[in-house]
Amino acid sequence: MNKLELISTLKERTNLTKSEAAEIVKIFFDSLSESFIKGERVEIRGFCSFHIKEYQSYTGRNPKTGEKVTIPPKRLPFFKCGKELKERVDY
Amino acid sequence: MALTKITIIEKITEKNNLKPSEAKDAIESMLEIMKATLASGEDIMISGFGKFQVNEKAPRKGRNPATGENMELDKRRVVTFRCAGKLRDEINGGTN
After folding, report:
1. Domain assignment present for B85
2. Which residue of B has its CA nearest to A44?
3. Do the Cβ atoms of B2 and A40 come within 8 Å?
4. Looking at residue A44, what is its pLDDT?
5. Hey, is the C-beta of A87 within 8 angstroms of any chain B C-beta?
6. pLDDT tens-digit readout, B10-34
7. Of A42, A47, A22, A8, which Cα lies nearest the Cα of B38?
8. pLDDT bucket at B96, cuts 50 / 70 / 90
9. Do B45 and A2 touch (CB under 8 A)?
10. pLDDT per residue over A24-53, tens digit each?
11. Which of A33, A35, A48, A52 is spaced 20 to 30 A from A25 at the CA atom?
12. Which domain holds residue B31?
């Protein structure tokens, strides 16, 4: 499923217009992105939570050439699956 | 303060002609669609944000740490998230 399919499914299941459904999906993911940029935690009950994990710089290797490369420090959103989602996805 | 559904609902009511209860229902419907999609084993790909993937984990042998007893852990399905390159760059200050 991609963003457009999510928007059209949301429109079908609710009384929302296509543009309202599109706006809601956009606001949802934009809000999450903004929080990640600020380094803020996100908690969506039953679905998931995210926190920003800081990764230190390390020396890695280019697997193709074997050449040593320094990986600069980075930040990435770390996803934790919510309880309800976890139970529904598992067998 | 962590971002929660309440803040997202407020943003929706500010920008749209929706009552808070309608905005809440809309978000809950959207989350339900996403949960049902992942539960069916289908991935969700949001361009510019990332991908929610359903991965299968093979069964493995484990041990009960309390009793030391050997046990067989069943195969299971989990959701993982992969951040989109664009968002990853934005989080890291636009470069990298």
Report:
1. yes
2. B4
3. yes
4. 96
5. no
6. 999 998 889 999 999 999 999 999 9
7. A47
8. very low
9. yes
10. 999 999 999 999 999 999 999 999 999 999
11. A52
12. 13-61+73-91
Distance CA B15, CA B26 (A): 14
Per-residue pLDDT, averaged over B82-89, amounts to 95
A29 shares contact with chain B (CB less than 8 Å): yes
Determine the average pLDDT of the residues in B42-60: 95
Tell me the C-alpha to C-alpha distance, in Å, between residue A25 and each of A8, A78, B9, B76.
10, 21, 11, 29
- Give me A22's structure tokens: 């599109």
* Residue B1 within any structural domain of the chain: no
Residue of B nearest to A36 (CA): B91
Identify the pLDDT of residue B17: 84
Chain A contact set for B3 (CB, 8 A)? 31-32, 35, 40-43
**CA A5/CA B36 separation, integer angstroms:** 13
CATH number assigned to the domain comprising residue B24: 4.10.520.10
Residue B35 located in a structural domain:
yes
- How many domains are contained in chain B? 1
